[in-house]
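ARCHIVE CARD
CATEGORY: sequence design from structure
SOURCE FIELD: tokenized fold
FIELD CONTENT:
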């Protein structure tokens, strides 16, 4: 065979095994919790065909006038899931400056696979971020919310859990989540490419851990594959139990270290906001001593103007759905003592905002233990600040609790929307009229903006209409 014939055969063979990008490159916050150093992480996934990737980045919004172009190391983790091997790539963009625009590009054999710009965190006393949860359901509403959030150009996005349905599997992320947030175009019918240039801080919800039995779901617990978040949190005494054949469990743990299980509790700063993110799933003791010690130190030492705590399952919820699960109420006295301003949750597929409130959980006759019903209810004493309206009175006395779980999954209790007479539960020790606003008949997301001692919260629905707004001042 002559040389031309050999080359032709080689080219044909190469084309036959051409690499397929399964998840395009997207931006993650990385392990940068405090405003002392800054960086980001790029993640992408391909099929089993290896690629010689190069990642370059520079300050500014184009490469043509760059004074210096940096290259970052690319690492690859083979994932042997569902009798298939895929390759998960990571590249850390380090030593970034605060308040700076950057551009990155991912190249393979000199060809640009992906490029996008992003802006690093700010140290100024301001920020603007979006919040939603319960989103990865492969729905038209999910696409619309993605598009609307991208149009708002937030500094970052906080996802309050239940990232993907139904079980948090790798194949579900690739089918139900990424296509809506790393879309090739920005359109209300398909979503947006928001994750290419805006980092998502994602909390773990109950649907994200339903696949902890790897014998049943070999591609389970994909939360730990696809996220790269701060690793400054506590590891509680009781953590998620991963089940399955020992070799399979060992392979999972090796693939996700050091993220499992530490990454389910973390905190970070952005501008003048400090956010502590917690795991509130059923295996967690809300008053775990290790977590309480970490949370106390984390919030007490923060110099941020605004202190926010986020977790998936709400303690204060007036919907019928998930009403009985109230274990996170036990954390209220601790958060009150530590000066928490807002609590952001999901789980219930609608929007709710409480009056500012304080809560004292009920104890047994010895005063040593909190009382919890078999359903998970926590009775106690409520103190409501009903004078706060967020317009004329903007100084709340107590914590405001938000449920923002209308990010894409089917809505809960649509008939209860804006009907306070339907929100009542019994007995009075378990429920008082703590809900100031509930919108349950349309999908929505939360937009929070801070400027010094002023915080503005707006809830925007899938028609881009403001359905709730308050201002808080200090």
């Amino acid at each position: 065979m002559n040389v031309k014939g050999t080359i032709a055969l080689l080219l044909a063979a190469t084309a036959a095994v051409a690499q397929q990008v399964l998840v395009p490159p997207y931006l993650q916050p990385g392990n940068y919790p405090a405003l002392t150093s800054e960086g980001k992480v790029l993640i992408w996934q391909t099929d089993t065909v290896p690629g010689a990737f190069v990642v370059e980045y520079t300050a500014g919004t184009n490469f043509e006038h760059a004074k210096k172009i940096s290259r970052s190391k690319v690492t690859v983790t083979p994932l042997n899931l569902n009798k298939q091997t895929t390759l998960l790539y990571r590249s850390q963009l380090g030593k970034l400056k605060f308040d700076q625009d950057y551009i990155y590009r991912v190249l393979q054999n000199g060809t640009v696979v992906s490029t996008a710009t992003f802006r690093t965190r700010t140290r100024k006393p301001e920020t603007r971020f979006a919040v939603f949860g319960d989103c990865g359901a492969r729905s038209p509403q999910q696409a619309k919310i993605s598009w609307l959030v991208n149009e708002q150009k937030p500094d970052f996005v906080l996802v309050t859990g239940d990232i993907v349905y139904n079980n948090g599997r790798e194949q579900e992320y690739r089918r139900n989540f990424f296509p809506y947030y790393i879309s090739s175009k920005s359109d209300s019918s398909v979503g947006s490419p928001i994750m290419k240039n805006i980092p998502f801080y994602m909390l773990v919800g109950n649907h994200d851990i339903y696949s902890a039995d790897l014998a049943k779901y070999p591609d389970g617990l994909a939360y730990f594959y696809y996220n790269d978040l701060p690793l400054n949190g506590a590891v509680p005494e009781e953590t998620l139990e991963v089940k399955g054949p020992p070799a399979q469990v060992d392979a999972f743990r090796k693939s996700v270290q050091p993220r499992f299980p530490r990454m389910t509790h973390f905190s970070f700063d952005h501008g003048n906001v400090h956010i502590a993110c917690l795991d509130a799933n059923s295996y967690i003791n809300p008053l775990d001593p290790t977590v309480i010690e970490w949370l106390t130190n984390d919030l007490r030492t923060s110099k941020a103007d605004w202190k926010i705590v986020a977790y998936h399952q709400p303690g204060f919820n007036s919907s019928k759905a998930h009403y009985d699960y109230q274990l996170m109420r036990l954390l209220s006295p601790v958060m009150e003592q530590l000066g928490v301003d807002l609590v952001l949750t999901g789980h219930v597929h609608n929007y709710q905002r409480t009056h500012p409130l304080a809560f004292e959980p009920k104890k047994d006759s010895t005063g040593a233990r909190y009382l919890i019903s078999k359903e998970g209810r926590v009775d106690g004493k409520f103190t409501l600040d009903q004078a706060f309206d967020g317009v004329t009175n903007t100084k709340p006395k107590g914590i405001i609790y938000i449920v923002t779980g209308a990010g894409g999954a089917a809505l809960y209790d649509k008939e209860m929307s804006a009907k306070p007479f339907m929100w009542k539960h019994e007995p009075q020790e378990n429920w008082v009229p703590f809900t100031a606003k509930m919108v349950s008949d349309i999908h929505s997301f939360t937009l929070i903006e801070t400027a010094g001692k002023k915080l503005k919260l707006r809830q925007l629905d899938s028609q881009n209409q403001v359905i709730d707004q308050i201002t808080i001042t200090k």
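CARD ANNOTATION: Confidence is low (pLDDT under 50) at residues 1-16. Residues 19-117 form a domain with the Immunoglobulin-like fold (CATH 2.60.40.380).
SHELF: design records, drawer C
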